[in-house]
Amino acid sequence: MRKTVVLVVFLLIFLAPTLAEAKVVYVAQIKGEITSYTYDQFDRYISEAEQADASAIIILLDTPGGRADAMQNIIERIKSAEVPVITYIYPPGAMAASAGTYIALGSHLIAMAPGTSLGACRPIMGYSQNGSIIEAPPKVVNFYISYIKSLAKASGRNETMAERFITEDLAIDQEEALKYGIIEVIAGDVDELIEKAHGMKTKVPVRGEYITLDLKGAELRYLEPSLKDKVVTYITDPAIAYVLLTLGIWALVLGFLSPGWHVPETIGAIMIVLAIIGLGYFGYRSAGLLLIILAVIFFIAEALTPTFGLFTVAGFITFVLGSIMLFSGGGGVDYLISREVYSEIRVIIITIGALLALFFAFGMAAVIRAHRRKAQTGKEEMIGLSGEVVEPLAPEGMVRIRGELWKAKSKDGTTINIGEKVKVVEMEGLKLIVVREKEKYSKEENVMR
What we know:
The chain crosses the membrane at residues 239-257, 269-301, 307-327, 347-368. This is Nodulation protein NfeD. It is found in: Membrane. Helix content is 50%, strand content 18%. The chain is built from 16 helices and 16 strands. The chain has helices at residues 2-19, 36-51, 68-79, 99-105, 138-154, 159-167, 174-179, 190-197, 227-235, 238-257, 263-278, 284-304, 310-326, 339-372, 379-382, 437-448, and strands at residues 24-31, 56-62, 85-89, 95-97, 109-112, 117-119, 124-127, 133-135, 171-173, 185-186, 219-223, 386-391, 396-401, 404-410, 421-428, 431-436.
């Protein structure tokens, strides 16, 4: 019995480290304008950290600001996160201005790298025709003052300084932010942040309670932005989106002024859709749906006005991009699938896109051409058909055409004997007017001679 107890204790001592789950901290980067796509990225990154039961997720933030609705959605997602979310304004030279300031204040912990800035978040309504800023009315300003103070109060941070970010459009560096109780850590890199944040308590509850961060010795897992994230980050730059919109309109006008080429209007339509997506009014799924609708328009255009494959190629590309975007939001929350399954879905998307392109390019085009052909019935159907004389035409008699007997009359009044081939050239009521096929051929041959 003693030997058994000793053996169990021995195994527990040596196997305990391997049985214990390794600590993991996820690190992800958010850069550029805050849009609906940014929310999708936050959601996906936080969801991956939640699924792995990570000790925390560090968001490397560098943003000049962006849309208020997207910012509020991001803050709500951080509040509902089941893992601590640490906002780290990084690298040196980065900023968390405007909407980025609110996101930082809604986080469980805020850190800044040397040479970074935070603040300057007075709301504006846009720009006037002469390029000057349109100031937000007092009621809008008062709302955001109340909102930012509530975020600071909920996290025990400096409400007065938070208010000054709006009323004075104040921006501060990392030293001032730490001095005035806006942030908790100054760190030169992620490793230093891990070391300093270890043992700190979150400023905002996680799963309903304040958590002491246990980060020492944690494995760092970096979540890299996908290609579509990088592309969307690029086109959501307001300058890029505006250039795309302008060039798209020019291309459409050029296409309408030079009908028959179709290249300018095709490129113009794609540019305009990308510009609309870049303006940030859509999330990934809405943008994907918009691209699929554009693809269907291209396919139908190819069927109606064959362009030697131009619209087909454009439709295929936009369909594939749109379909992939449809499966981009939610970070695995709505789509509980593995990476392998998602890879299979991408193959299916490409296959279906190719089949659709082929169908509209060939099958649908043939159907439309068939419908466009004038229906041939009765008189129109008979003219041009060939038959055989079964009762001499002198000048009237009977002919057999497609197995049916018809009264017929020789057009020129000559006699056509039994067995001779004739062709219908006219109809008088139900009587066919015919000519000898042999005569017609001989005339054609004489002409050829």
